[in-house]
Each structure stands twice: as structure tokens, then as C-alpha cells.
Specification:
about 300 residues; alpha+beta; Jelly Rolls; Arc Repressor Mutant, subunit A; 3 domains; 5-stranded antiparallel beta sheet; 4-stranded antiparallel beta sheet; about 40% helix
Length: about 300
């Protein structure tokens, strides 16, 4: 495995990925990663601390830290002894063709969490495997790079296994089709988009694309259609006021309900109710004497 020595405790932001690199810290000195890609760093010798915001995590020999790109953190060597670090970086965006779009979404989602990092104890299989990999010297060939890539992915642990990266886009589409077929439409009003994404084992961004492909509309528009259908049913079968129908259907304001209903059906909720309730009774034009007549089942009634 090729090891690139670091003499000043700093790493170049465009350092090569999937190559083991080394950094040595004198007692009490710091190292700020500031890497352009994800990093997996192991304490080769000595002890120190991972400083990130107010958090202070002790690092002993063998400890591994998984951190997102450009994380605002520092490694502080103990004042009693120095530290030696070995690390490598992975930039998913530079691995197009190897990492799918759905997998890219997963890594971006995790990286989007505030200052994401994960500390792996020295006895963990990930830490033991990285120690073994770092001790291997074979010129940094293809097999070595693939080993490092696998090690990096495994460092995500359960998060990786619960993500859509564990299944193909076809699987996600099929799970969504089954969900929509077996779930009453009203249930979509009770489930959040993030919850649905977790249920289908994919990222929200990936679900957004798949939902449109399967349903022909966005998740938000689908829920709006369900609310409007419920409102239309209430208008036709109940005596509830229009404002009550709006709130019972899940709309947060009467004005929003009126606007969306009119845009969808080309008529206001009140007028729609007049046309569709009471067995087809509807208003007709006023006669000359100013009194309103009614048309019932196609015949006019009124005083002759």
C-alpha cells in the first residue's frame, strides 16, 4: 500500500484518494484534516483527542475516525507523547460509473448532517482491518484501492445497510408500487416523506425521482389530490361549512383550500356544492318578476 508522508501535519485538499497517507504530530501539536473528500483516519501510535465544536473525544492507539469532507475538526496529540496517523480519502463524485446515483445521494445525505463523524473503537473489526491494510505494502494497486473502498463503505455500519444503496433502483420502484397498491390513499396524508423514504430503504432525494416515475406526479401533488378528493366527498355528503370541510380535509387555511379547489376543478367549493347536492337541484336564471325559480330534474317550477 503506498504511503505518502506528511511532514508538517497538514494535508493537501486535493490529495490522491484511496491511498494511505501518513501524518506525524509532535506532543501537544494539532492536525486539521480539511480534506476535499471523506476520510478514514487511524491512530497508528500514541494518544490524543478529536476536537469538534465543544466535543472532545479521546483517541487511543488503533482508534479509527470516519469524517465527512471539510469537517471542522482537529486532532490534538497528547502533551506527553506524539501521535502518528494514517488515513485515506474517498471522493464519491470522482467515482462516477462505480458509485450509482442512488449511492451518491446516500453519501450526500449523511454528509449533510451537521459535522458528521463516527469514532470506531480499536477492537472493532473495521479498526482491526484498517490496521492490517495499513501494514500491507503492495504499491497501491487496484486490489488495494478496492480494499480501501470496501473498508470505507463498511465504516458506515448500519446506516449503509439501511440505505437504498443496499438495493437497486428497480427494487425501490417495486416496493413503492406495492406500497401504493396496498395502502389506502388517505394513509399518505398520515406519513411524512422522510418516513416513507426510510420505509422504502432509500434517500428522500432518490424517492422523489422514483415517486414521480411510478405515480406520475410528485408526493406533494399526490397528497393534495387526495385532500381535494376528500373535500369533494364532504361537500357532497355532509352539511359542514366550507371552512370546516377545508380543515377536515387537511388544508391549513380556507384561502388555500379555495384556491387549490378552484384551480383543480374550475369552480369554487361553494358553487361545486350547489351543483352537486340535493339530487341535482341547481339555480337557474331569474324570471322577469325577480323571483328565483328552480330547475328540478330538468323541469321548471314556480308560480304561474
Amino acid at each position: 500500500m503506498k504511503i505518502v508522508a506528511e511532514t508538517n501535519g497538514r494535508s493537501h485538499p486535493y490529495a490522491p484518494q484511496l491511498q494511505i497517507q501518513a501524518c506525524s504530530l509532535a506532543p501537544g501539536k494539532e492536525w486539521a484534516p480539511q480534506l476535499s473528500g471523506w476520510s478514514l483516519t487511524q491512530v497508528g501510535s500514541g494518544t490524543g483527542y478529536w476536537l469538534q465544536g465543544p466535543a472532545r473525544t479521546e483517541l487511543e492507539t488503533g482508534t479509527v475516525v470516519l469524517a465527512a469532507a471539510d469537517v471542522s475538526a482537529r486532532v490534538l496529540a497528547s502533551s506527553l507523547n506524539g501521535m502518528s496517523l494514517k488515513y485515506f480519502i474517498v471522493t464519491p463524485e470522482r467515482l462516477a460509473g462505480l458509485i450509482t446515483q442512488g449511492e451518491q445521494d446516500f453519501f450526500r445525505q449523511v454528509a449533510g448532517r451537521r459535522e458528521f463523524h463516527r469514532v470506531v473503537e480499536p477492537e472493532d473489526p473495521i479498526a482491526l482491518k484498517m490496521k492490517e491494510v495499513c501494514a500491507t505494502s503492495n504499491g497501491g494497486g487496484l486490489l488495494s484501492r478496492l480494499t480501501l473502498l470496501q473498508l470505507w463503505v463498511e465504516a458506515f455500519g448500519r446506516e449503509w445497510h439501511h440505505s437504498q444503496a443496499d438495493a437497486s433502483p428497480v427494487d425501490v420502484k417495486e416496493r413503492l408500487r406495492v406500497f401504493l397498491q396496498e395502502t389506502p390513499p388517505e394513509a399518505l396524508l398520515e406519513i411524512g416523506f422522510e418516513v416513507l423514504a426510510r420505509t422504502l430503504h432509500c434517500t428522500p432525494r432518490h424517492l422523489s425521482r422514483v415517486f414521480y416515475e411510478v405515480a406520475g406526479t410528485s408526493f406533494r401533488e399526490k397528497r393534495a389530490e387526495i385532500r381535494l378528493s376528500r373535500a369533494r366527498e364532504l361537500l357532497a355528503t355532509s352539511q359542514s361549512k366550507v371552512v370546516d370541510v377545508a380543515f377536515k380535509s387537511g388544508f391549513k387555511s380556507l384561502s388555500l383550500f379555495n384556491r387549490m379547489f378552484t384551480q383543480r376543478f374550475g369552480i369554487s367549493p361553494g358553487r361545486w356544492r350547489q351543483k352537486n347536492e340535493n339530487g341535482g337541484v341547481k339555480d337557474v336564471s331569474k324570471p322577469r318578476n325577480g323571483k328565483k325559480r328552480l330547475a328540478i330534474n330538468g323541469r321548471r317550477s314556480g308560480r304561474r
